[in-house]
C-alpha cells in the first residue's frame, strides 16, 4: 500500500507542478509521516493503525511544516472528537460492548434473508455525536442544516442503487449457486494469471459499490475461495484485494461526486481523467509485487 501510494503521490506532484504549486508542496514529508507508523504499527494496532498514523501525521504537520502556529482550533474540534470517539471503544471494554449493540431483522419480507443494524457502528451516529460535542465545546448553537440535508439526499440517491445491488449479491444462493460462488469459479479459470487480476477485482469492487469496505465484503470471499482453489497464499491475495479496493476510491464516481459536492467542484469527468491512469499503474505494480511475494512465500 505504501509503494502504490507513492506512485499516486508522484502523479499528484506532477499535476501540481503544471499548476504552479510546487513551492508549497509538502506531500512527500506528510506521506512518509503516515507511511512509517502505518507499516511499523500495523502488526500491533491492527484496525486502529490508520487512525493513529493519521493523528501522528497531523501532529508532525503542525509542529514542523506549518509556519503559522496560530491555528483556529474550532473547525478541527469535530475531527478530534470523532477520533477520540472511534478510539475509546477499542481500548475501553465496557464501551466496546455498548458499541456492539445490534438490532436484528429476521426473515425480511418472509424470506430466509436476515440482517442486523448496529446504530453505534453506523457512520451516522459518530458524526452526529462529534458535531454535538464540537458545538458544545465551541459554545456555538447556530446551525444551517439546509445545505447538509441537500447534499445527503443527493448522495443517497446516487449510492442507494449500488448498496441494493451489493445486498442482492450477498443474499443470493438459496436455491441456485450464489453470485459469489459463481464468480470464484470463474476467476479460478484464469489459473497462473490470477494474481495479476486480484487487485483489479478490488478496484472494480470499489468502483461499483463506492466503498472499500463493501468491496472487501463482497470480493474478499470471492478472492479467498479462488486463492484456496488455486493453492495460493490467501493472506497475500486478500492483501492485494484490500490494496486494490483502497485504490479504487480515486476512480469511483460515487466518491468523486460526493467529494466534489463538498468542495464545490462540478467537473467530475475531468477528475476521473486525471485519476484513472495513476490508479491503473499503481494497481499493476501491486499485481507484480503480489506475484513476487507469492513466488517467495
Automatic annotation (TrEMBL):
Membrane topology: Multi-pass membrane protein
Residues in coiled coil: none
Keywords: Cell membrane, Membrane, Transmembrane, Transmembrane helix, Transport
Pfam families xref list: Lactate_perm (PF02652)
Record flagged with keyword Cell membrane: yes
Location in or out of the cell: Cell membrane
Transmembrane segments: 27-45, 51-67, 79-103, 123-140, 152-172, 192-219, 240-263, 275-296
Family stated for the protein in its record: Belongs to the lactate permease family.
Function: Uptake of L-lactate across the membrane. Can also transport D-lactate and glycolate.
Protein name (database record): L-lactate permease
Organism: Algibacter aquimarinus
Amino acid at each position: 500500500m505504501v509503494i502504490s501510494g507513492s506512485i499516486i503521490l508522484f502523479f499528484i506532484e506532477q499535476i501540481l507542478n503544471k499548476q504552479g504549486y510546487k513551492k508549497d508542496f509538502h506531500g512527500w514529508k506528510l506521506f512518509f509521516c503516515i507511511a512509517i507508523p502505518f507499516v511499523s504499527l500495523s502488526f500491533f494496532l491492527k484496525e486502529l493503525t490508520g487512525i493513529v498514523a493519521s493523528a501522528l501525521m497531523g501532529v508532525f504537520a503542525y509542529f514542523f511544516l506549518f509556519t503559522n502556529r496560530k491555528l483556529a482550533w474550532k473547525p478541527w474540534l469535530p475531527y478530534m472528537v470523532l477520533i477520540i470517539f472511534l478510539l475509546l471503544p477499542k481500548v475501553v471494554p465496557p464501551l466496546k460492548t455498548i458499541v456492539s449493540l445490534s438490532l436484528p431483522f429476521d426473515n425480511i419480507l418472509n424470506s430466509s434473508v436476515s440482517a442486523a443494524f448496529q446504530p453505534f457502528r453506523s457512520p451516522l451516529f459518530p458524526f452526529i455525536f462529534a458535531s454535538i460535542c464540537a458545538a458544545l465545546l465551541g459554545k456555538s448553537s447556530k446551525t444551517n442544516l439546509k445545505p447538509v440535508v441537500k447534499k445527503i439526499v443527493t448522495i443517497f440517491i446516487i449510492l442507494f442503487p449500488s448498496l441494493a445491488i451489493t445486498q442482492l449479491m450477498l443474499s443470493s444462493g438459496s436455491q441456485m449457486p450464489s453470485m459469489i460462488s459463481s464468480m470464484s469459479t470463474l476467476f479460478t479459470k484464469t489459473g497462473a494469471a490470477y494474481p495479476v487480476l486480484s487487485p483489479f477485482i478490488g478496484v472494480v469492487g470499489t468502483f461499483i459499490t463506492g466503498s472499500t469496505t463493501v468491496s472487501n465484503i463482497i470480493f474478499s470471499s470471492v478472492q479467498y475461495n479462488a486463492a484456496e482453489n488455486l493453492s495460493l497464499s490467501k493472506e497475500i491475495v486478500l492483501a492485494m484485494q484490500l490494496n486494490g479496493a483502497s485504490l479504487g476510491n480515486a476512480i469511483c464516481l460515487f466518491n468523486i461526486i460526493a467529494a466534489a459536492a463538498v468542495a464545490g467542484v462540478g467537473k467530475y469527468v475531468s477528475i476521473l481523467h486525471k485519476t484513472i491512469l495513476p490508479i491503473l499503474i499503481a494497481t499493476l505494480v501491486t499485481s507484480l509485487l503480489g506475484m513476487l511475494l507469492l513466488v517467495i512465500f
